[in-house]
Specification:
The chain has about 425 residues and is α+β, with helices and mostly antiparallel strands. About 30% of the residues lie in helices and about 30% in strands. It is built from 13 helices and 21 strands. The strands form four sheets. Strands 10, 11, 12, 13, 14, 15, 17, 20 and 21 form a nine-stranded antiparallel sheet that branches. Strands 3-2-1-4-5 form a five-stranded parallel sheet, with helices on both faces. The protein has a four-stranded antiparallel sheet with strand order 6-9-7-8. Helix 1 packs parallel to helix 10 and helix 7 packs antiparallel against helix 8. The longest helix is centred in the middle third of the chain and has 21 residues.
Length: about 425
Amino acid sequence: MNILIVGSGAREHALVKKLMTSMHTTSIYCCPGNGGIEEDAICVNIKTTDVDLVIAFAQQKKIDLVVVTSRQALAVGMVEALEAKGICAFGPSAAACIIENDRLFTKTLLEKYGIPVVKYHLFDSSQAALTHLMTQNVFPVILKNNHAGNENLLDTFIAYNAPQAMAIVERMFQQDGCQKLLIEPYIIGPKVSAVILTDGVTVKALATAQSFKRTHDGENAPYTHGMGAVAPSPYYPDDIAKVCVQGIYVPALKALRNEGIHIKGCLTFNIVITPHGPQVLDISCRMPDPEIQAALSLLQTDLVEIFMSICEDRLDTQDISMHDGYAVCVVLSDKNYPDTFENGQHIKGLKAAARLSDVTLCHCATRCDEEGYFSTGGRVVSVSTTGRFLDETVASAYEAAQIIHFPNAYFREDIGHH
């Protein structure tokens, strides 16, 4: 099969590497890709939102499967446009992306169908939000932009006190273009990312992971898109999994169908485990980054076969199995990420790190020329390792991460430690 991936980050690089191992794969293309993906796939300079060019390229190269992972590509209807031309595509329709892009819709849906979800307050102005915060005077709180449609813009923040909350609220409404703001209580408890596959009817778990979203070690730092992950989640025993499947995943899919939304592909449920049981923080309709870099390292089943079973509405016949043990992902970023970052930093040590046993490098934002690899974003490279025991797997990940250097290189040192 000829396969095309639409996207450009470490998630896409992880997918390329896993799809390369399939007995069904003949060639892999990626648009637009990045410097690291060029090592493993043929990168094509087509924008992820250029539907017509992607279709023309797929027809020219006789592409058998297109995997659409870019949020912008999904939002412009890339999947349904490909399917209309008879091209098999993995990913949700633009209509189904509402579950990720409109948090209020998702919260309301879950409440309507009695699915446990973290409570919230909604505000459409900075003044209303600040009045609520000052009246309640309960911190810390989580502040979320209702519209999560910008892949490069952070949309979730934590405020530990009133002055911090005021500054964040003003920034979100005035600089970030926020029109509706969700304020949630800060819930203490393990957070689990559960990656669920569906063909619209059948629900099957692909993997779980613990994500490390803060910029620095511990839990008193700003949020990012993700600085590391451990798969499977140590906080997801069989009894919790059973509750989540029966009380969250299956009912959520039925709720979407009842509301006229047919979703195929991937749903990522971000769950907090509370003393009263699991509650949904939010839902994404894409594979999570960096959690999927770790999770795919453990996948034993042929990924092409999984994708095709979903595209052909036969997920119920598809087995999904994972290797025993753990996978750990550590992200190397610019030390000033997510506030600012410096592009064009020369990256060294990539080949040496990749030579270590059970190490997989996925490029987040890089370019490559005759002088080597250079950074093109805040998160630069992710390092994933696998092992039988968590502590030894963590050690292997950090051994590889310490080999990679660029001027502002930074990584958290507590991934997998709690």
